[in-house]
Amino acid sequence: MTVPAQCPEFAEIAARVNNWGRWGADDENGTLNLITDEVVRQAAATVRTGRRVPLALPLQQDGVQTGMIPGRVNPLHTMVAVNLEMFGPGTVATSDDVVTMGLQAATHWDGLAHVSAGGKLYNGRPAATVTAHGGATVCGIEKTRPLVSRGVLLDVPRALGLERLPGDHAVTPDDLAAAEEFARVRVSAGDVVLVRTGQLRHYLAGDKHGYAHPSPGLSIRTPEWFHARDVAAVANDTLTFEIVPPEIEDLWLPVHALHLVEMGMLQGQNWNLEELSRVCAEEGRHAFLLTAQPEPFTGGTGAPVAPVAVL
To answer: What is the CB-side half-sphere exposure of residue 197 using CA atoms within 13 A?
Structure first.
């Protein structure tokens, strides 16, 4: 098992993308600070038809989780009241339900406390600030600023003339640039970038194990591309976000560490980008207004989200 700090390539990239102190020593929002009022105003101006595309998977027991990630269980939905006449016979009846699930079980954002490296979270805070009883006592997902911005779909398979990327494909900066050129759009400061690999097609076809592993995903070299563009957040359509098995032998989740710890940048997984891919191709544009606020679970290291792209 390779430790990130002992990997020269990781250490060099981390030094180049590190944002600690950029927005102050007490900051808990990282690159979401790049979503300014002006960025949101310009994002709203991308809306032309009002066409809305949902990007979340259904929350269901037969979800994407296979047991590969310990404790991250698919949603278990239970009825606790069914047509209960709570105030007596003939009164209005109510039905209530509860759900038990991993906060990152389906379409979600990873929060800044989700990953530590070298005993540190984003902005140099101790990893020990995540506790068994309090969860993320700093950088909890509830601290997330209203997440509305311009979304940009980088449709890597379409740009490369494919339906989906093969399982051993590490998405490189060159791939991102090719998808950007294909989309005829320039990724700008404050944008939320959605990287499509087509991997979710496995799950949608009923093959959740094929969806999980092996999986294409982002290369360790992509964080520098996002850092240079001042991207606010990144999400994609895979279970693991980055390529699995890893491109550097035994170096697991280096992109998680670079994004969440070094850059302070949220990353999202299990986003359904298939309909969005079709709609963007039909309309000939890949930029839109995106709403993607995570559920504000206090102390959460991540949270479910039901994103919507508005074109």
So the answer is: 31
CA–CA gap between residue 104 and residue 74 (Å, rounded): 9
How far apart, in whole angstroms, are the C-alpha atoms of residue 156 and residue 217?
11
* Chain position carrying tokens 């969860």: 135
Q: Is the pLDDT of residue 217 over 70?
A: yes
CA angle 102, 207, 194 (to 5 degrees): 65
Q: How far apart are CA 259 and CA 262, in angstroms?
A: 6
What distances in angstroms separate CA 290 from CA 46, 81, 90, 104, 185, one per listed residue?
Answer: 10, 36, 45, 20, 16
Supply the DSSP string of the chain, one letter for each residue. ---GGG-HHHHHHHHHH--TTTT-TT---GGGGG--HHHHHHHHTT-SS--EEE-PPP--SS-S--SSSTT-PPPEEEEEEEEE-TTSTTSPPEEEEEEE--TTSSSEEE-TTS--BTTB-GGG-BGGGEETTTEESSS-GGGPPP-EEEEEEEEHHHHTT-SS--TTPEEPHHHHHHHHHHHT----TT-EEEEE-STHHHHHTT-HHHHHSSB-EE-TTHHHHHHHHT-SEEEESSSSSB-BS-SSTT--SHHHIIIIIII--EEEES---HHHHHHHHHHT--EEEEE-PPP--TT-SEEE---EEE-
Question: pLDDT tens for residues 141-151?
Answer: 999 999 999 99
According to the 3-state scheme, what is the secondary structure of 114-129? CCCECCECHHHCEHHH
* Whether residue 2 has pLDDT greater than 80: no
Report the percentage of the chain scoring pLDDT > 90.
96
Distance from the Cα of residue 7 to its chain's centroid: 25
Q: What is the mean pLDDT of residues 270-287?
A: 98
Q: Is the distance from CB of 109 to CB of 268 less than 8 angstroms? A: yes
Measured distance CA(149)–CA(38) in Å, rounded: 10
Flag whether pLDDT at 1 surpasses 70.
Answer: no
